[in-house]
Amino acid sequence: MEMSENIYTNIDSIFEGDPCGRRAANRDEDINEDSIIFQDSRDAAEDDDTCMGRPAANPSGSKSLGRRPSRAGDVCWGLLCVLLLAGIISLGFYRNTVMNSYKDNLTKEKNQLETSNNNLTTERDQLQTSYKNMTKKRNQLQVSYNKLRAKSSQLQTSYNIMTKERDQLQTSYNTVNKERDQLQTSYNTMNKERDQLQTSYNNLAEEIDQLKTERDLLQKRFSGLKRAGPKGWTLFQSTWYYISSEVKSWDESRQDCNERGADLVIINSKEEQTFLTNLNKRIWIGLTDKDKEGTWKWVDGTPLTTSYWMGKNPDNKMEEDCAEISIGPVEGNWDDFSCATHLNRICEQKH
Question: How far apart are CA 42 and CA 40, in angstroms?
Fold first, then answer.
């Protein structure tokens, strides 16, 4: 529809904007009404020639030459009118086709809406039926619930009776238990006296064993004291320690200790840690993680259990795989250090 209206608008603009077109249309009306005189026809022919781009006819020429261009223009405008009429008829047919298609679409949509309405009505009826069925089931469940409540009350009564009987039995059981506990107390008292006698016997046996052990240790220490005690060695708690005056690497220090029949010190107690700290020297001890990074072991292969590391050590900043006692508090003066560093050493000789 919009296309046909645009065409009509373009046709009107042609007649409004083109003076030649207006004159041609006016001339056609004059010819159809037979009210034009010969002179007007000549003027119209001259105007047509001007609009067609041809030179105007000589006014002094023959009458036949003046009439021929006017008829040719009439034929052209007639053909143009026929073409416009054919276009208008085509647009009319196109409009009818579009209108019929639009009506068909409206009909289809109406039918679809009616179908949807029928489906919704059916679903509504089905939901209504389901609602009624659910209401019926709810009522049946309510009846069942009431029956269960009645049974629950009966069971509660039976439970109360059973509870009373249980309490009576519990009282009888407590009486029997009380008598049993009295007998158990007497039995435990006798066992306790027997255990005390056994403990006294065991204590005497342990004291005898300890005395024998101490005697053997004293004999060994006495023998060790006879063998040890060269220059530079110090005795602490029955163990001899050699404190070097010169500095060496960790490996050289251990080799020196081995040559002296000893090894780098292994710290087994806080008293020993305090003794070594009081020397106020940086000294190598027999602790390393050379075999596996982070797993510290003493030189005799035993793992480290009690440590006295300083701060966040060991930190292994520069391949620090050997341990030293630095100058500091007893509770934290161990430091991991490069094994190639030269420090004092302390050798330990056990008997």
Answer: 5
- 271 Rama sector, left if φ>0, alpha if ψ -120 to 50, beta otherwise: alpha
**Domain spans in the chain, listed from the N-terminal domain onward:** 2-117, 230-349
Tens digits of residue pLDDT in 206-258: 999 999 888 888 777 656 554 545 678 888 888 899 999 899 999 999 999 99
How far is the C-alpha of 249 from the C-alpha of 166, rounded, in Å?
A: 83
Beta bridge partners of 234: 241
CA-based nearest residue to 38, from 50, 49, 30: 30
Angle subtended by helix axes 19-33 and 2-17, to nearest 10:
90
What lies within 8 Å, CB to CB, of 145 at 6+ separation is none
Tokens of 66: 């003046």
Mean pLDDT across the chain: 81
- Identify the CATH number of the domain defined by range 230-349: 3.10.100.10
- What pTM, to 2 d.p., does this model score? 0.38
